[in-house]
Design a protein that fits this description.
Structural class: alpha/beta
Largest sheet: 6 strands, mixed
Distance between the termini: 32 Å
Helix content: 25-40%
Oligomer: single chain
Strand content: 15-25%
Length: 476
């Protein structure tokens, strides 16, 4: 799920009691991997881990954020499952931290709490028209086709010919690829059935992926771009003028950036081979990267009710390399489209007033995962760093937080001498508040049902789409 990154309003919190950590995983931007990677109970024989998750199902964005045609990325679930089934690890789903139980109550019950609930909020474009029908956040769009319960009713209108995706990270390319993928490919994935049916009826034939800077600052990885280039039934549509001067500069780039830029140059500037010309002549779908463009207004339809296009400011760059800055010019261009998907980033939200929070940077202030001015409180994942990096980045980030916590145990900075009640007290509070947690064995019932449903249609799984359905299966 390169680049995600997260997503929803669940939370991943982790805590230690003398022998106990606790974690609540926000399936929405807590990725799941940040939480699971933080606990790894094998690291300490005197530590137990409790994972708290708002949804009845674990794994966060690995389940709800990874593109359905990237099943290999989801194999990390096997490792997470081993962690969750460890004798010193317990999972409590269907528990909303900040609502069903407070951070202060967790701190009273455990020696340490790790917050790992990611970035469930959308970054606003801040332009006129972004509230029109036909404008969606990439987070919600991805949640819709991946079966996130809160996005089940999204029902995006796909009756237009052209879609514009704002942003050029891996999530943006995921969205473009799903919009243009042949049905035969999607039918073999775990994409939800309602999304599959909607995409099969989609009229979208052209997707423009817009970025405010240039080819040498594009945020996607070469793997994602190569998938777009090789997507069956589509042809690339680039503007050679966007690459002026790039060929001369490419030799000085670091190797990963150089390879990515060379691929874009090949697609944009080289004449296609005869076979590729034939392919281009018969394909009805196209995609293109558009550089040096910033959205300034979503243009309304004549009746003012929905999206009819988007106005883009043409930018120039000041500086060079990764530090180059996009500066607006007086030039604008209008693009006719009926669908705008904003993939300009996510932001973490404050879930409990007792937690220190930097609202400007949308992170919990921390030093190597240690929450500032809050002894025994830690954070990992996007809540710690902001929304950046891929799954491996998030896992390493979480290992660093776990390392900080263990260093504090060993140095005595974290006092673990007094006994703590851990999950026993939290379960008592939840029972008193009529909240029934979902255990990992309960989740395995959901997993079994989804897998069987998928097998009947040739898919790896068919996800349950509502919390009510999940709970009914879990507790049957």
């Amino acid at each position: 799920m390169a680049g995600y990154k997260r997503l929803f309003n669940r939370v991943t919190l982790w805590t230690w009691r003398r022998s106990r950590w606790i974690s609540r995983n926000d399936a929405s931007a807590a990725f799941g991997e940040a939480a699971f990677s933080s606990c790894r109970p094998k690291a300490r024989q005197d530590v137990e881990v409790d994972i708290y998750e708002r949804l009845p199902v674990p794994f966060g964005l690995v389940r709800f954020g990874v593109a359905p045609d990237h099943p290999e990325v989801k194999n990390v679930i096997n490792t997470f499952t081993q962690t969750a089934k460890h004798a010193r690890c317990s999972f409590y789903g269907n528990v909303n931290i900040g609502k069903d139980v407070s951070i202060q109550e967790l701190q009273q019950a455990y020696h340490a709490v790790i917050l790992s609930y990611g970035a469930e909020g959308n970054r606003s474009m801040g332009i006129p028209g972004e509230d029109l029908a036909g404008v969606y956040s990439a987070k919600d769009f991805v949640g819709w086709y991946n079966g996130l319960p809160s996005c089940r009713e999204l029902s995006p209108d796909l009756s237009c010919e052209t879609a514009v995706v704002l942003g050029q990270g891996n999530v943006a390319l995921d969205v473009a690829r799903i919009l243009l993928s042949p049905a035969d490919i999607l039918k073999k994935t775990d994409i939800t059935q309602p999304a599959l049916e909607a995409l099969m009826e989609s009229q979208v034939r052209r997707v423009l992926i817009v970025g405010r800077r240039g080819p040498m600052q594009v945020a996607c990885t070469i793997k994602e771009l190569r998938e777009m280039v090789n997507l069956p039934g589509t042809r690339p549509e680039m503007l050679p003028a966007d690459f002026d001067g790039v060929r001369e500069a490419v030799q000085d780039l670091p190797r990963p950036r150089k390879r990515l830029t060379e691929l874009m140059l090949k697609v944009a500037l080289q004449l296609p081979a005869e076979k590729e010309q034939e392919r281009g002549n018969v394909t009805s779908r196209s995609w293109g990267l558009r550089f040096f463009r910033s959205p300034v207004q979503v243009l309304p339809s004549p009746d003012g009710t929905r999206t009819a296009g988007i106005r883009l400011a043409v930018n120039k760059l000041e500086g060079s390399g990764e530090a180059a800055r996009a500066v607006l010019t007086n030039e604008v261009e209008d693009v006719t489209c009926g669908l705008v998907i904003s993939s300009i980033g996510y932001k973490s939200l404050l879930i409990d007033p007792s937690v220190p929070f930097d609202s400007h940077r949308a992170i919990v202030p921390n030093q190597m995962g240690r929450v500032q001015q809050a002894a025994g409180l830690y954070c990992s994942g996007w809540l710690k760093t902001g929304p950046t990096g891929v799954i491996a980045t998030t896992m390493n980030n979480s290992f660093d937080t776990a390392r900080s916590l263990m260093e504090d145990m060993d140095s005595g900075k974290l006092d673990v001498s007094a006994a703590k009640s851990g999950a026993q007290n939290i379960r008592y509070l939840l029972e008193k508040r009529e909240v029934k947690p979902v255990t990992f064995s309960d989740w395995e019932k959901i997993d079994s049902v989804e897998t069987r449903r998928g097998e009947s249609t040739g898919k790896p799984r068919e996800k349950l789409l509502t919390v009510e359905e999940m709970l009914q299966v879990a507790w049957t």
